[in-house]
Amino acid sequence: MTSQDTAPHLARHALSAFEQVVGRSSGFRTRPGQHAMAECVADTLSRADLGECADPTKAIAVIQAGTGVGKSAAYASTAIAMALERKTRVLISTATVALQEQLMQKDLPALAATLDQPFAYALAKGRGRYVCKLKLERLVGVGGVDEDLFEEETSTPLRGEQLEAQEERRMRLYEHMANTLATGRWDGDRDSLNDTPEGSDWATVAAERHSCTARHCPRYRECSYYQARTKLAEANVIVANHDLVLASLGMKTLPELDNCLVIFDEGHHLPAVALDQFSSAMDLSSLRWLDKLPKVLTEVSNTLQLTLTEDVATVTSQLKGALQQLARMALDLVHANTLGKDGTLRFAHGVLPDALTEPVGQIHAQATGLSKVLEVLGAEVKALAKEDPTQALQCAQQYTKLGAIAPRLSSVVGTANLLLEHGTQPLAKWLQCESESGYLHISAHACPIVPGDLLRQFLWSQVRGAIITSASLTSCGSFDYFLNEAGLSNKPYVTALEVSSPFDYTAQGTLTVVHTLADPKNADAYTAEMVEYLMKDLAEVQRGALVLFTSRAQMRSAVDALPGALRESVLVQGSQSRMRLLATHTARVEAGFPSVLFGLQSFGEGLDLPGALCETVFIAKLPFAPPSDPVDEARAEWLKSVGRDPFNELVIPATGIKLLQWTGRAIRTEDDRAQVICYDKRLSTQAYGRRMLSGLPPYRLERRG
Fold first, then answer.
1. How far apart are CA 230 and CA 228, in angstroms?
2. Best label site of 179, 474, 605, 654, fewest CB within 10 Å?
3. Model's pTM, two decimal places?
């Protein structure tokens, strides 16, 4: 689908739709920034060539739109109108459930009621959010198949009566789920259950790719996941999340990225999601699944009269032995490095010690061999189901058994492969030991260290037309850091636009930097002095406030220092669910009482507390990332080795983006009046602090102390 000749027409059509939508909206106010954003969206997406063409033109816009611009209205109306005109689809990807809910429950319904041309929209979820009816039937006895497949390996082993009580509770849960599904009172979506099941309970009955025979399953037509897929296929607009988009690359679960228009909202999360998607880990301490592996493969092959090509019992025994050997070595290495305590041991420069190379090599070879046997057997099971429909039910049940093993085996193969990999750019590789309730968990990890390379190779190589937007894409006043992290630096098809917030920050708010006597690098002395200042300031809070801490220990020090008169006013993250904390906070403020939220990093982003709900944001310390993260450590080490400065190149801009998010909690509407108080004097005394300051909204700047 070539668009170069028609690009101006498409852009005008899309912008006209946006103007029509905002003009019809109740309480409409002219927002120059929103219009500028819509213009950029229209122009960018109109120039992208979609579908099959010899030399396709790419067009990607990176748009930072400050709070209050109205991002979703600017991109959704414009992109959807253009997609309908071009007879293609729009994929909107977010990072949080909150934004997905806002789009699905508020923005898209309002847009559908306003746009002249009708469109259908749907929410895409991973397969694991849906129940597998076949598994559920087996568990409640309809299928009559044994249940030992579903034994869980828990971090806290259960005994006798506990185990029996858990099984009884689970069976009641599964029977209830089966009944509500059969009677049409439930659609099989985990999120639509009144009471959300615990993760371990749900995992037993969740649909998953490895255990699904798809069209060959006798429950295919009734499958909740495939019914949802059908709705997706009929939708003009699909809302998904970054994890699902990256996990689905090349799998045809979502629209093909070279043949649709893509919006990445909350786009600043993309680099972190990429690292997470392409990292790998293997469990070295929970190995009971290996005892089942030969039995399962033998039973499946015998039941369906298929032939195994390997002596799986011997290879499995060898694999378990190698994993146990690696676990012992890992424990010794970690304890030698941490003076006998649990912790993490990262391998410098991504080089695996010689002593570990042989056992990891054995693990890779043995696990790869078993994985191939599993793959061949699985293919034969699916082929049999296709050739002989009378055996479809039995084949599907047997395939489910194989599917329970496949992800574990795959993680062993993948992690061992990355641990053995050596290239010009190292990987982060580390061992981890953690104790919980007397149970020791040992694991091995490997992860790439440059997200931009991953996104360039796997995502941007497919995308033709896209908008990446967020309120925090610049750091220290520049897009350079994000463009580099996202793999979009120096690309001729990428444009960047900063759209200012309509708020008058100078008139609406102040940013006060408190100059403590203690150096923030002296953690104990600084925390003590900061907490003393904070207690005095909290006593002045009349309505809603938010305190953001950089560590749990720091937050605990503040909680412990609260005088009795203040304790009743403070709500602490982790003491109850986020939703309940915010509801309590809102109720208190609306009743005329002071209420203060204590929170960590996750409370510094995405929290919308307008007006009296948040009149002051207290920042305990500049939000530098903890220095112990293995991936950050490995990347800093690599940058130093090639003569680059990780502090200036990574640490400062990453902290600048967080600070932009944290200060953004203060003013949420054009009528808000709020103050930000930061107790870290480095924000105004250090050159890097002033760099961060230059990238913040133009609050009136004040100094105390």
1. 5
2. 179
3. 0.92
